[in-house]
Inverse folding.
């Protein structure tokens, strides 16, 4: 296959038999035929001379060239090959011959084009340059054009050869536009774009990082990303997920800002691989979700907390208790459950008012809390009924805690808004986990039964389950 790059011609062309000499190149030979008919060949390639001496073969080559070629005399088209006709969307060469080149060149490119066509003689060449060309149908094309002085039918002429770059140009433009869009996004996005290398060293980070973490990008780029994580476990969980799935979505984590604050973040990332398919790093987007997390925590707190006393509400208590119950079933460990109910509480409300009753409930909860350990659960099941779950507590231990609570409640000083003092008592029923308990409800039922007995036996007492 020929490679007609920089086709350079000396022409002595008649209308019927054309004689063109090409510099042409193949892997095997290079050859030149000059206008005086002489042929210069590389040594050892004389066979090609036979080919070059056949002038009609050059005319044939001119016709089959995939590159548009036009010969211009005095600024007017004098000869075009079929590729040129195709490029100019013209069906017949005769319609173009004699027309000024300017008719086909974009007005803004005409001064440049005219300057290049003005040169005399046949020993010069214009460098590659882009021109906007208008076809016969009015469509614009972007051409990469080279031109060279030649002799055509005994006159100074210019041979122009052009490659259609319209598509390349559109692609360039699209690329430029997408680069521009990416840059605009990169500069202005609220979230932080980041990319690390295979060792977790930050390669690129977007300017939003300064708003979120207080660092300028240059302070982070080139440093290990893990220096920004407050906890190694967060980092390890992230790495594990990325290595396992190649990506993470809305992955929760935390980072430490320049001023030492811990920021909640959510990360969308994906693993990067090199051409050989080897892991090459991670790129992704980090979002500051501190506000969202605070709201979520607040919502969670509201959903699980009794608004009056601040202890667990019924749902949260039972959920947690269920959890501990299952653990007891699996590991056959101990747990005891106390049901606590204030005695004659209706009377407090009736005598001192509902607000005073509320205050009494708050004091009650605070007093009970003091008697419990971190691992114990305390919740308000409703009204003046409460429940305590003691983990790893046997009967003597549970009885001791319950008695202490009962005692402290009865000696807890309370006063009404008008200054009247009064006290409260509490009845407590206790049940302990048994191996045959198949659900938490069994334990609750037995504790409730014991509480009922405490009430019916006179209140202000602790009763251990009977059977
Ligand atoms: N102030 C106040 N009172 C409440 C609250 N929840 C329930 N109560 C009141 O608690 C009282 C419970 O009354 P009862 O169920 O008759 O029980 P009791 O008066 O404590 O009598 P015993 O349980 O039999 O000793 C009712 O008057 C309820 O209105 C609350 O959040 N605040």
């Amino acid at each position: 296959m020929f490679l007609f790059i920089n086709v350079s011609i000396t022409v002595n062309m008649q209308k019927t038999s054309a004689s063109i000499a090409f510099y042409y190149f193949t892997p095997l030979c290079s050859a030149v035929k000059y206008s005086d008919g002489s042929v210069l060949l590389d040594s050892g390639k004389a066979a090609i001379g036979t080919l070059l001496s056949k002038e009609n073969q050059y005319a044939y080559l001119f016709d089959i060239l995939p590159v548009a070629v036009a010969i211009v005399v005095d600024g007017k088209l004098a000869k075009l090959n079929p590729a040129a006709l195709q490029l100019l969307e013209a069906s017949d060469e005769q319609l173009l011959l004699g027309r000024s080149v300017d008719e086909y060149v974009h007005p803004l490119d005409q001064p440049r084009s005219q300057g290049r066509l003005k040169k005399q003689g046949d020993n010069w060449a214009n460098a590659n340059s882009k021109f906007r060309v208008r076809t016969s149908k009015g469509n614009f094309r972007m051409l990469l054009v080279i031109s060279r002085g030649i002799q055509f039918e005994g006159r100074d002429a210019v041979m122009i050869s052009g490659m259609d770059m319209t598509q390349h140009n559109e692609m360039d433009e699209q690329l430029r536009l997408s680069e521009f869009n990416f840059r605009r996004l990169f500069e202005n996005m609220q979230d932080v774009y980041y990319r690390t290398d295979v060792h977790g060293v930050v390669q690129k980070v977007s300017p939003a990082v300064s708003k979120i973490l207080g660092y300028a990008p240059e302070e982070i780029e080139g440093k290990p990303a893990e220096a920004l994580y407050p906890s190694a476990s967060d980092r390890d969980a992230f790495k594990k997920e990325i290595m396992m799935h190649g990506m993470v979505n809305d992955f929760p984590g935390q980072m430490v800002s320049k001023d030492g604050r811990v920021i909640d973040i959510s990360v969308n990332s994906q693993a990067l691989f090199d051409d050989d398919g080897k892991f090459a790093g991670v790129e992704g987007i980090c979002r500051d979700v501190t506000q969202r997390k605070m709201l979520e925590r607040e919502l969670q707190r509201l959903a699980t907390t009794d608004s009056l006393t601040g202890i667990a509400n019924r749902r949260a208590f039972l959920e947690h208790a269920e959890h501990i119950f299952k653990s007891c079933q699996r590991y056959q460990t101990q747990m005891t459950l106390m049901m606590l109910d204030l005695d004659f509480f209706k009377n407090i409300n009736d005598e001192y008012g509902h607000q005073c009753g509320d205050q009494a409930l708050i004091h009650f909860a605070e007093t009970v809390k003091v008697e419990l350990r971190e691992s114990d659960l305390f919740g308000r099941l409703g009204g003046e009924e409460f429940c305590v779950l003691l983990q790893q507590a046997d009967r003597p231990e549970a009885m001791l805690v319950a008695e202490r609570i009962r005692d402290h409640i009865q000696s807890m000083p309370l006063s009404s808004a008008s200054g009247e003092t009064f006290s409260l008592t509490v009845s407590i029923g206790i049940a302990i986990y048994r191996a045959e308990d198949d659900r938490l409800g069994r334990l609750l039922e037995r504790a409730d039964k014991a509480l009922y007995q405490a009430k019916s036996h006179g209140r202000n007492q602790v009763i251990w389950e009977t059977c």
